[in-house]
């Protein structure tokens, strides 16, 4: 694609996404729903103005990068650690309930074992970028509820990547045998990466009484304009590439790199300036493209021959994910309304499901029909997540205000939510 054609496509996408996003904002609904519908409108399903291509795929990956970096910067590692004991239980139950249910339903439709396991895997995913931007738009990302949902989603996606390695090996092996040596090595690399991140976080916390005084003057002496922004991007990209290399999706590395960047180390003024740049770039350019591209990728006509399978798997995906999230939250003694809000917030799938679906399609585990079904489920659940979660979030604000109070990570008390 020539540069001129790419620019035209971007302009069309941004105009459509901005207009419909504004419409939904004015009717008190999350703008991302309008941005998703804009993608369907201008994509192959209706008008056929824009078609998905590798260049748009690159822009979508960049969008995910900035969304996850922003989500990591917005969150407080101290609150993440507090949410950990809740999130582990919630994420495990919210993963395996839809995974088992989706696998069984797929087998009822006559799919092979590897295909059934793969479709079950796709139904069990919670897309961290979707959850993050929904929570940002609700102004709850830095609340206890937001921390629990995001931490659960991150753990959920890590589990999904481990399960993906097993399913790919089952699909590759004619005898159905799994190479447990290769699987063990993959798990060990993932564990080493996460241990390294937590060690780095602990190191920064334990040196917080003297390190900022030595590091912040370095940033003040830099003469290059926005040098702190460049250093942050370089560091984040490096960590993301390491995560990708060892078998994790790059978004996991991006999120954690943003999470461990302490305001006190680079200086509050530098942090606020860098955060402002990233926020403007993300919400002004990348986020509308991200959601519109998801809409562009879906082709509604191709679902005509697989409606029963699509409807069955969609029903299982929604019921099992919401039910699993609710059950997990109730098991850790959270209130009913808060538990329902968590279940509905974890129902979005979006790009993470599309990435794994593309891997399975390229590996030959699923065919074009199953890939289309997976894309459609990801699209529908991404739209449903903010719309269905909104009333339960509202109830949680009234009946469980401590869970939705947004705290300033500086310790100065509550702060206003994001606009």
Pick out its properties.
419 residues; mainly alpha; Na+/H+ antiporter like fold; two-stranded antiparallel sheet; 1% strand; globular; disordered C terminus
C-alpha termini separation = 36 Å
Output the helix-strand order. HHHHHHHHHHHHHHHHHHEE
For the biggest β-sheet, the strand order reads 1-2
What is the number of helical segments per DSSP (H or I, 4+ residues)? 18
Strand count = 2
Total of domains:
1
> Percent helix among the residues?
over 70%
Low-confidence stretches: 409-419
CATH class: Mainly Alpha
CATH third-level topology:
Na+/H+ antiporter like fold
Oligomer: single chain
For the biggest sheet, the summary is: 2 strands, antiparallel
Q: Would you identify the CATH architecture?
A: Up-down Bundle
Mean pLDDT: 80
Q: Return Rg in Å.
A: 21 Å
Principal-axes geometry comes out as globular
Class based on secondary structure composition and strand pairing = mainly alpha
Kindly describe this structure:
- It is a single chain.
- The protein has one domain: Up-down Bundle (Na+/H+ antiporter like fold).
- Helices cover 78% and strands 1% of the residues.
- It has 18 helices and two strands.
- Helix 2 packs across helix 13, helix 4 packs across helix 7 and helix 6 runs antiparallel to helix 7.
- The chain has a two-stranded antiparallel ribbon with strand order 1-2.
- Strand 1 and strand 2 form a beta hairpin.
- The C terminus is likely disordered.
- By secondary structure, it is an all-alpha fold.
